[in-house]
Design the sequence.
């Protein structure tokens, strides 16, 4: 992965026009792109799609960087509402048969589809972000220690709150998002006693819109702010935009996620209330996998994990209020060192 500073990674690209492609055609045991030059990355987005200013846009930034650096013409495809695993599989097969390599599923929901597609197309390297259950010679499992950056977000919240009440809003009640909540709550409580952490999830399943409904995020944040929270951290994809909107409306702090949301053009009118963002270097993961296939001809496979130690996760420092707070920065430095040397063991649930 590309190098990330101690508590900052570079902002990712903002939303662009979505390219929606229909997936069709029968599967094959051999890919057209398997024996020739790769056209570039085949990227299939998670729910919420491109333009979420968060998770999917981080993947798009890596996709765009690879296209430019390698002179490739990658192809990215949007998700559809209410789609099945079969729809995801068909999308991945279309990319593989069209000569794209690597083919990446953005999000853990692609796990069944990536597993099946990888078996059908052994000459193509597949990547999946946020899942490491697939054990195959041609699959790269790109995962992150989200709990570590969330711990630092918790330290930040604890040293920023004036009401001694902070909030966490998760998009969907699943183990991945539990990592964000667990790290955040531990960071808060390790830093300052007596703080109340309000936590809730928008939906039980992604199909219900937990990652793709800004209105749900806004309503949840309104409730937490109404109950006294003056710092709210959301791990909710596109829904997090609603959380940020509510925080700005009430002039309290929001902590963003995945991308540096302070620098996202679509969120510019709220930026003065985005204190920081808990980042994971999805951009770097996507780019590095593309580089390994297209340029190095030595595809990365297996478990590829981003952490504080390898700059795969961190906090954005674009907001001067955050960056210039010497007390906070000293506390974050100490916490980060503790995580790296093992004296702080961050919970994942």
Sequence:
């Amino acid at each position: 992965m590309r190098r990330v500073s101690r508590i900052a990674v570079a902002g990712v690209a903002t939303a662009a026009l979505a390219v929606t492609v229909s997936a069709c055609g029968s599967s094959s045991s051999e890919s057209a792109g398997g024996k020739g030059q790769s056209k570039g990355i085949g990227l299939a987005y998670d729910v919420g799609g491109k333009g979420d200013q968060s998770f999917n846009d981080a993947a798009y930034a890596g996709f765009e960087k690879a296209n430019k650096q390698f002179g490739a013409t990658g192809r990215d495809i949007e998700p559809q509402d209410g789609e099945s695993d079969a729809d995801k599989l068909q999308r991945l097969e279309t990319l593989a048969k069209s000569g794209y390599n690597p083919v990446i599923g953005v999000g853990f929901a692609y796990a069944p589809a990536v597993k099946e597609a990888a078996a059908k197309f052994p000459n193509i390297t597949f990547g999946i972000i946020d899942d490491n259950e697939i054990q195959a010679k041609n699959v790269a499992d790109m995962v992150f220690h989200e709990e570590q950056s969330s711990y630092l977000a918790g330290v930040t919240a604890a040293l920023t709150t004036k009401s001694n009440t902070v909030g966490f809003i998760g998009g969907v009640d699943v183990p991945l998002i539990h990592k964000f909540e667990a790290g955040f709550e531990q960071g808060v409580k390790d830093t300052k006693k007596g703080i109340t952490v309000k936590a809730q999830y928008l939906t039980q399943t992604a199909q219900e819109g937990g990652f793709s409904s800004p209105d749900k995020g806004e309503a949840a944040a309104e409730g937490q702010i109404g109950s006294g929270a003056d710092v709210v951290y959301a791990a909710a994809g596109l829904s997090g935009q609603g959380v940020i909107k509510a925080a700005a409306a009430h002039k309290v702090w929001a902590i963003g996620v995945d991308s540096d949301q302070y620098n996202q053009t679509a969120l510019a009118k709220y930026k003065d209330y985005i204190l920081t963002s808990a980042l994971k270097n999805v951009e770097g993961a996507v780019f590095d996998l593309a580089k390994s296939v297209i340029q190095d001809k030595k595809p990365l496979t297996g478990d590829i994990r981003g952490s504080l130690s390898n700059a795969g996760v961190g906090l954005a420092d674009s907001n001067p209020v955050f960056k210039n707070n010497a007390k906070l920065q000293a506390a974050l430095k100490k916490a980060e060192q503790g995580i790296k040397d093992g004296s702080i063991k961050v919970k994942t649930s």
